[in-house]
């Protein structure tokens, strides 16, 4: 009962944030009429550039999963990532609904539970490492061009602290089987205590489970950490390419918002958007990114137009492809009997 009330409260707060952002805050910065005037000036070349950037972004969803789950070919990885990401845009709870969908589909495709768990964990951890690490990189780049941004600096300090803590916890958990058992047991107790607060049962894993996970994760990362890192970086940086294309198309000059300033603004908002306040960070990301870009000197109507265009190009294609992919996945959700570790590639 408490869990249900909490979900409704979070949903209500999310709706308030969306309404305030789109109905009040953004129009106060630049009325939608002037924003539409900017968008109407887009040339055929601009539209082609935007379409290419959006397509490149979509194509980079699959490779991290192909690296993390050997035997998962591009076609199925693409369908899985589009459907699971689309669910995170529609359902409250951050990445949790998408992870649950991914786990269920992969199990029904015949992948062993331990293999799927490792893939979900390492791809998720690497994603969070990038999100937490980028603001610190941005602050370093800003210092090279003698720029200062208090909000970004604060976010970078928080992100760096969490990043270091996460890396240390991850390394500590993988250091030895005995240490992994202790860390896993402590995490299981903590998770069960949290679940009791919402009248849910204890978790079904233990310290021994985490020790087994450690062995599987070390085996995978020992062979593929570099490929996973490259694939994860590519997936994030192509999102940034969409923002750059949007800023260029809407006429935000490099003299006002340069490459480093755009990266700094984007990395700050990616960190804020990772918090499960609204599905996909809708409202939070738009307002935060607009404010950061304006702080660096961008024009009001052009910046709002660029931000809305960027968000449309990074959300709507995945929503459309996610619906199609979910339908395709639905045709293949019949159990196949005994799980196998590595099904044949597509």
Question: What is the gist of this entry?
Answer:
This protein is mostly helical and 346 residues long. It has helices at residues 2-29, 32-40, 44-59, 63-68, 74-90, 96-108, 113-144, 150-175, 177-197, 207-249, 259-273, 284-295, 300-331.
Give a structural overview.
The protein is 78% helix and 0% strand. With 346 residues, the chain is mainly α. It has one domain.
Total number of strands: 0
Shape: globular
| Binned strand content | under 5%
Give the distance, in angstroms, between the N- and C-terminal Cα atoms: 44 Å
Number of helices: 13
Largest β sheet strand count, sense and barrel closure: none
Mean pLDDT over the full residue set: 80
Backbone structural class: mainly alpha
> Nearest-angstrom radius of gyration?
21 Å
Weakly predicted, low-confidence segments: 331-346
Structural topology:
Blueprint (H helix, E strand, L loop, with lengths): L1 H28 L2 H9 L3 H16 L3 H6 L5 H17 L5 H13 L4 H32 L5 H26 L1 H21 L9 H43 L9 H15 L10 H12 L4 H32 L15
Helix pairs in contact: 1-12, 2-13, 3-10, 3-13, 5-6, 5-13, 6-7, 7-8, 7-10, 7-11, 8-9, 8-11, 9-10, 10-13, 11-12, 12-13
Task: Considering the chains and any ligands shown, give keywords for the structure.
mainly alpha, 346 residues, globular
